[in-house]
User: What shape does this take?
Amino acid sequence: MQRRNTPAGRGGNPPVSHVLFGNHRTLIMGILGTMAGVVGSVGGISAGAGVLEILGFVGIGVLGLALAVGYVVVASRRPPSRG
Assistant: This one.
């Protein structure tokens, strides 16, 4: 009989936060998304775009910021490597 609730430290499945934010590509995508949101919002405001277009870029920026912060939080909780 198999145990279903095995903790991650004993060979079980990794937590969902490590699956979503544990890869360095998440940090890169977060930085790019944040930059796209800022540049798109400023460009949309200066070009006279509508409210929905500007809010769309703000949403992209917020999502990118959430990805970058999520990676940093998960990386700070990771045990240090030995070597």
Notes: The helical segments are 16-21, 24-47, 51-77. The chain has one domain: 18-77. Residues 45 and 51 are 9 Å apart (CA to CA). The first helix runs from residue 16 to 21.
